[in-house]
Design goal:
alpha+beta, GTP Cyclohydrolase I, domain 2, 30% helix
Length: 122
């Protein structure tokens, strides 16, 4: 059985986008994470070493968003999922990248892409 750990609304400033001004000026991206993990070991031990340290994970996600500009949020979402899956306890990661300031010539609230990736099992 897999439990779900969620961290929602991680605000990051990145320089991603197809247009040159997006790379130059940057904009806010908001990241939502959901991770499939077994929390039973941590519940039994009450020890941080037995679970995913979401503070460290958020720091790693911020670094992933704030470095190395890419054109597409699809690429950014995959990068973030890869960071989440580095911990062997994470069975799957669902990542949503929100780009609320996307350069669209219309009134809109948000642009969001959600991907789900699994850890490859041998």
């Amino acid at each position: 059985m897999t439990d779900e750990l969620a961290v929602l609304g991680i605000e990051c400033y990145g320089h991603h986008g197809v247009f040159e001004f997006e790379k130059r000026e940057g904009q806010t991206f908001v990241i939502d994470l959901a991770l499939g993990i077994d929390t039973a070991p941590a519940a039994a031990s009450d020890d941080l070493q037995d679970t995913v340290d979401y503070g460290s994970l958020v720091a790693a996600v911020k670094i992933a968003v704030e470095q190395d500009p890419v054109d597409l949020i699809e690429t950014l979402a995959q990068r973030i999922a890869d960071v989440c899956l580095l911990d062997d306890r994470v069975e799957w990661a669902r990542v949503t990248v929100h780009k609320p300031d996307a350069p669209i010539e219309a009134t809109f609230r948000d642009v969001a892409l959600t991907i789900t990736r699994r850890t490859p099992r041998d």
